[in-house]
Request: fold
Amino acid sequence: MTVDDIIFEISQRNLIGIALLIAFLFVPIGISLLPYKGDPAKPPLFDRLQARMGLSGLNSGLLFVAIAIWAIIFVSLVLGLLGVIWSFILSPIPQGQAQIWDWRFSLAKMAALTATLGAVVALPFTLIRLTFTRTQTETAVEALFNDKINAAVEDLYAQRQISVPVTDGEKQSHESIWQDDVTRRNGAIDRLEGLVQESPTSAERVARMLSVYVRELSQEYKPIPTPETTDRENLRRWARELKPARSDMQNAVQVLGRLQSISGVTELAGLVDLSGANLQGFDLSQLSFEKSNFSGAKLQGANLGRAQLQGADLGWAQLQGAHLRRAQLQGANLGWAKLQEANLSWAQLQGANLGWAKLQEAKLGGAQLQGAFLGGAKLQGAKLSWAQLQGANLSGAQFDNATSLVNATLRGASAREVDFANSTIKPHQIEAMFGDASVTLPGGHGPDHESWPAHWSKEKLHWADFETQGRAHQTSIGQDPDNPI
Reply:
């Protein structure tokens, strides 16, 4: 037999059947996308049906196919049952053995069709009942979870009664007083963290709650004022000796820093609000506070080593003597922050705002400051050895002969209104930067001196012109002005 002998024949009836089958499979998917009663603002018809039946997870087209199949089976069974009943009614009284068996078979068919039809009819009602049962179960679970949250919140403000001795002259007695139950409150904070692990969607609620808790207690437990001293060693010693005002306050902030590491928790941008809080001496190392609000917070002596602080707001925060070694501060706002004696060694500060920050005697060795803004920052005595300052803006920054810039990389950095006269900046570092006539070079030299870099402007530029020419200089040395890393 050759290939030519094989003939494929499709009858018209089969072709119509195939076309109907394809239409049956694909047309419902298009129909299911039609808007509800012609209103585009409402969900499609079958989306509403799915929601009512609790089958929102299914594709609406597949649901349409399932309903169509159910309808075909239902109609077929009804017609079949009616046919059997009709034939049973019209059939004559059985006379012979063969007719008796046919009559019994008709009864069996009727019973089978009736039972099957009952099961088919009950199917949608069973699905609806299961949906209602699931909804009730979910409501009960949610109510139980809310009860757990409420119980933990009540314990956040738990108090206990204690007896204290009271002396009245020679007479001694005892008096009962109320005080905060710190142990119970710590347990409540731990339970709230456990509830977030149980239901990550509650993270936002817990974040707001604990933030309020810490801010409110900070009003009662005021921070210790920073000593008015010019002795840096005394300031360092004072910062090292600072301890948390209360263990439950520190525990609450530590839980806030762990929330974003819980599986299923989305970004809590703006929800962790610790502005103005008393966080002196807190251990917050290796915690996550991305885009959190620490503006005006009292963080003297706090340990933020390796903390995730990308995009955090630390404006006006007091960080004297704080430990920020290897902290991730990309894009953070540290404007006007007090960072005297702070340790920022190897911290990631790309694109951070350090405008007018007080960084006297701060340790910034090896810090990544590419593209950072240090305009007006006080850098007297700051340690910037090996710091990466590519593309950084140093306009208005204050340096002195104790500011260490040993091996600091200043390629593409810009300076305006800066006095380098008494600084230790090297000629090759000046050459790598861009500036204008408002800058004073080491030795007090100006634009007419031979040490003035050729690519620097010999005029005092307006801010817009200064920025334009500074970006042009970055481009000329192969540096991306928007990403000078």
